[in-house]
Write a structure and sequence with these properties.
Blueprint lengths: L7 H27 L10 H14 L4 E8 L1 H8 L1 H19 L4 E6 L2 E6 L5 H13 L2 E3 L2 E3 L2 E8 L8 H16 L6 E3 L6
Parallel strand pairs: 6-7
Antiparallel strand pairs: 1-3, 1-6, 2-3, 4-5
Helix pairs in contact: 3-4, 4-5
Length: 194
């Protein structure tokens, strides 16, 4: 006669573990979705900040930029929110492509975007390219929508305190200096910033 082993408790533990694993997986997916802007697919402030901090730790020569869409409010007012959403989605796609594999883009809210990228010697030219990309028209339901962008950027090496918070403050100041100019576009904060 053989001894039968009761495997019921083992199956119960396995079922419980599988249930918890499924629950944790769903929670991770929900958390990940909450860190992505549903309209643009970009990281929200919290998700972007976490990734930007990692890039800055690994790449102390990184650059941070803020971009604000010029002429966005009239698009929303004249053509409606669906048209505004189309412009925001296009801006998000263009910014993501511009950042490439070694940067990260986010949407802070409204028509304000943020990015951190590895620094290179062509940063000023790359900013000009981004400004041009964001100026490209967006077609929506037979209407051509046009906006511009004011972009402020700073290299972390230009700051006396090379932190993400300091870089965001400096990039914001540079962006508002661009907004004050009659011909908007982009501005790279010079290395003499303290």
């Amino acid at each position: 006669m053989t001894n039968a082993v009761d495997i019921t408790p083992t199956l119960a533990v396995l079922a419980l573990a599988a249930g918890w694993a499924l629950h944790v997986s769903r929670l991770h997916r929900r958390l990940d979705r909450s860190r992505h802007d549903p309209l643009t697919g970009l990281w929200t402030r919290d998700g972007w900040t976490r990734r930007a901090e990692r890039i800055i730790r690994r790449r102390p020569r990184a650059a941070v930029l803020l971009a604000d869409l010029d002429g966005f409010k009239p698009v929303n007012d004249v053509h409606g929110h669906a048209a505004g959403d189309a412009v925001l989605a296009a801006a998000g796609e263009r910014l993501t492509a511009w950042c490439g594999a070694h940067g990260v883009a986010g949407r802070l809210g409204g028509d304000e975007f943020v990015a951190v990228i590895e620094d290179d010697t062509r940063l000023d030219n790359r900013l000009a390219d981004l400004a041009e990309q964001l100026r490209q028209p967006v077609e929506h339901q037979g209407v051509t929508l046009r906006v511009g962008a004011s972009i402020g950027a700073v290299r972390l090496t230009a700051l006396s305190e090379p932190t993400l918070a300091a870089a965001l403050t400096a990039a914001d100041q540079a962006m508002y200096r661009v907004k004050d100019r009659p011909r908007r576009g982009r501005r790279l904060l010079p290395a003499a910033v303290s």
